[in-house]
Amino acid sequence: MAIKNKQVLLANRPHGWVQESDFSIVETDVPALKDGEVLVKNLYLSLDPYMRGRMNEGKSYAASTNLNEVMVGGTVGVVVESKNPDFQVDDMVLGYFGWQTYGISDSKGLGKINVTEQIPASAYLGVLGMPGLTAWVGLISIGQPKAGETVVVSAASGAVGSVVGQLAKAHGCYVVGIAGGKTKCDYVVNELGFDACVDYKAGHLVEDLTAATPNGIDVYFENVGGEILEAVLDRLNAHARIPLCGLVSQYNETNPHPVRNFGAFLINRVKLQGFIVGEHADLFPQAFQELGQLVASGKLKYRETVAEGLDNAPKAFIGMLKGENLGKQLVKLA
């Protein structure tokens, strides 16, 4: 009897905020394997802000998801059938099968992972996966922080921002996070070890950011955009660096927030560089080595927010875009 595969498809292209009705959930039969292929049962699905852009039609750094196709996304899973000599049944693997319970691969883009007591499978979608690599590449390669400098990161309690701040501390910097709400700010300071955290929801962002950065800002790791970017621009030091990772506050806006103080880039000779982590694969071995050592030693801490079951993926995705998660947002599939 054929194995049933549950899949979440893109049903509509959202205008403004994503709705659960923009997705449809279907079941299909898993086809028989061809020579060279492996069948993977997905255990965890990663939910990430970039997926919102893939729901749109139009020019971007990656192709849009077509209507009635499976939503894109990173996964970790276990090989349950193999016709490929490089993979055996029960191998744990990192893949990009998207929002579905099973995936078939010809092995391209599929990598084995080493799951241990210190490093669970889910970590390969977060702190040791794309978010962790994004944090390392953006901060270390583009931000180039120096000991004693002030580093600020927005979405500081999220999967990327939390790693950015801890890496900056490990490199001797004074680190300030920006996050939404007292709970997240307390987590960032008390558990992750940031020097300060600004609650942008408290109603006095500019004043609080000024107080938290008495020596200005040398590196700003940008995940959010909008009013937070505006506030940061007024605090930048000469020759500051901004690794531009994301603009999550603007992804669902029909009228994006204009940046009023754009001239700060010229006045302070700021380096602003947008980046896509997949274009920096040459740095992955170095990044993974440092991240892996820090995680295994307990020096790099992380949290996961886990939704249960593929049916809850749309709701969890919308919640993540609204900032309801703490740390990495995952869906446990099996």
TrEMBL record:
Any Pfam family: ADH_zinc_N
Q: Which UniProt keywords apply?
A: Oxidoreductase
Residue ranges occupied by any Enoyl reductase (ER) domain in the UniProt entry: 20-331
Q: Answer yes or no on keyword Oxidoreductase.
A: yes
Highest taxon of the source? Bacteria
- Write the protein's name: NADP-dependent oxidoreductase
Name the source organism.
Dictyobacter formicarum
